[in-house]
Design a protein that fits this description.
By secondary structure, the protein is α+β, with helices and mostly antiparallel strands. The chain has helices at residues 5-8, 42-55, 80-85, 88-95, 103-110, 117-133, 137-156, 175-186, 188-191, 205-211, 253-264, 281-286, 290-297, 312-317; strands at residues 16-22, 60-67, 71-78, 168-171, 309-310, 341-342, 349-350.
């Protein structure tokens, strides 16, 4: 049975949430649609940019995100204490970056001194209502989903629902859950086979943390952009192992990246993507295989060789009378017991 939204997002339980939303239509949110052949890659820019822009206004921290082909993931933390620390004027200024607000609020922000006490009280009532909205996960998701849906529908020249629903949420009750879900989110492109490693995982928080990129990417089509282009880009929630920052993840960024990389190298039984072992450039250049690495590790590589070591081509070009059996050597053949051994593929042949 579906739970009411108030039970799914309850700050009395935890301020941390994993949010997911999916497209309702077959057409992709982002990436290349194999059915229609159309490319929607620019919509990743819409989604990433708008997420970070909203983070600059709301008292909500963005810890992790991944923008996928037909869905996206967010890990957010609501920060009521930060919202409560803002003055009423600061709250009104922030909210009117998102909405014009009532005329009374607009006039107050331009000429606050001309208002009488009863009118000021009414304005402060608005401020208290907006303050609560500025740390409300549902309001954050509403202001993320609605503009994206409008832009996508306009681009596709269709009407109707774009998202499957408002959003799905999971509460994150402890530090283990927070770090595990952040890693899961950051590994989405790798698990989907869309990226080979973390630095190439486009439109993820882990890529942004690795590259240090804090600049907004220009939207592919300004005429379709959201109404928030005037907003600054917010920052990802920082890591702080020393606990000096109140609004930070209490771990080392290096340790977190090491964990995510480690998890990415473990093959998921239901996913095709994995981070492959790093191959040094010299191995690629010389055509050395991972079997060669294994033989080196186990001390087998130099066992049983003669006076010469080289590739098949090099040995065949050497003086044949010095190397018995070289004429019979082929790249795909391994011969043991006649004084030579060859590594698979483009490996090294030893005598």
């Amino acid at each position: 049975m579906t739970k009411p939204r108030c039970e799914q997002v309850s700050l009395s339980d935890t301020p941390w949430y994993h949010l997911v939303n999916r497209c309702v239509r077959r057409a992709f949110l982002c990436g290349q649609d194999k059915v229609t052949g159309r490319c929607y890659e620019h919509r990743r820019v819409w989604l990433e940019t708008l997420t970070l822009q909203l983070a600059s206004v709301f008292a909500i921290d963005v810890a992790a995100y991944a923008m996928m082909s037909n869905h996206y993931h967010l890990v957010l933390r609501a920060n009521p204490k930060l919202a409560q620390s803002w003055t009423d004027d600061e709250v009104l200024r922030r909210w009117t970056q998102l909405f014009t607000g009532p005329e009374l609020v607009q006039r107050y922000l331009t000429e606050p001194s001309v208002f009488t006490a009863p009118i000021n009280d009414k304005v402060m009532e608005y401020a208290q209502e907006y303050r609560q909205r500025l740390y409300d996960i549902s309001w954050f998701m509403r202001l993320l989903n609605e503009p994206i849906a409008r832009m996508a529908n306009k681009e596709d020249r269709v009407k109707g629902r774009f998202w499957e629903g408002r959003f799905k949420s999971q509460v994150l009750l402890d530090e283990q859950a927070i770090i595990a879900v952040m890693a899961y989110v950051d590994l989405n492109p790798v698990r989907a086979g869309m990226a080979d490693d973390l630095p190439s995982s486009n439109f993820t928080s882990v890529q942004r943390r690795i590259t240090g990129n804090t600049q907004a990417v220009p939207l592919a089509n300004p005429s379709l952009s959201p109404a928030y282009n005037h907003l600054a880009m917010g920052q990802l929630m920082p890591f702080d192992p020393g606990g000096q920052q109140a609004n930070a993840i209490p771990f080392s960024l290096i340790d977190y990246l090491e964990l995510v990389d480690y998890l990415g190298r473990s093959l998921h039984p239901k996913k095709r993507g994995v981070i492959l072992p790093h191959t040094p450039k010299l191995m690629t250049q010389l055509g050395l295989t991972h079997q060669w690495v294994q033989d080196m590790e186990e001390g087998r590589w130099l066992n049983g060789f003669g006076w010469a070591i080289g590739t098949t081509k090099s040995l065949q070009q050497a003086r044949p009378h010095r190397m018995k059996g070289v004429g019979k050597v082929k790249a795909s053949q391994v011969r043991v017991g006649q004084g030579f051994k060859e590594m698979p593929s483009q490996g090294v042949l030893k005598f």
